[in-house]
């Protein structure tokens, strides 16, 4: 289940891509299939090992084109182990709402993104997320849980403050909002509740079969019920000052 729309966030063969806070690795897998050189980074060592295993299996099965490469690494999003301007694209999907220092995280993402590169940031959408918080404290009051809810303008302000230039937004996963409302209403750990199990089966069926009816329905509902808000931005090129101007500044 992809949250980033790769028609709006194009990845070309050979692009260096960082999936920052990769989780289960869904976006890293898609970039790998598109021929990118991918780094999937997360602080959860167990998830990193699982993602590494899936990436290796994809390579062995020939799911990635020649020249593509992928690695999963454990690391701290606030102190990335990469030089400046290391990546052509950075994905930060469903991460910022978990991190106390969201400005620091975004600053690190911008640091390792090359000038002219693209970044995609996704967070839970304000309306559906507010319903979840109202229905269940357990939904967010857990270790590593969501600590804030972003309005769209707040996230875009964060993006601009980091020195990025937004170029597009959209909402995604409208069909998932009612599922999470059901879970919150019946207990987030109560996976056996009949409505929750039934809706989960529907989502799995939709994911596997991709029927046209639900695809159309979700596109129509996304602007109203979309579970995620997605923002795309570029890192501008910094004009280089001439050596003469630099020398003049030093002498003044």
TrEMBL record:
<dbReference type="InterPro" id="IPR013216">
    <property type="entry name" value="Methyltransf_11"/>
</dbReference>
<dbReference type="Pfam" id="PF08241">
    <property type="entry name" value="Methyltransf_11"/>
</dbReference>
<keyword id="KW-0808">Transferase</keyword>
<dbReference type="GO" id="GO:0008757">
    <property type="term" value="F:S-adenosylmethionine-dependent methyltransferase activity"/>
</dbReference>
<keyword id="KW-0489">Methyltransferase</keyword>
<feature type="domain" description="Methyltransferase type 11">
    <location>
        <begin position="18"/>
        <end position="120"/>
    </location>
</feature>
<dbReference type="InterPro" id="IPR029063">
    <property type="entry name" value="SAM-dependent_MTases_sf"/>
</dbReference>
<dbReference type="GO" id="GO:0032259">
    <property type="term" value="P:methylation"/>
</dbReference>
<dbReference type="InterPro" id="IPR050447">
    <property type="entry name" value="Erg6_SMT_methyltransf"/>
</dbReference>
<protein>
    <submittedName>
        <fullName>Methyltransferase domain-containing protein</fullName>
    </submittedName>
</protein>
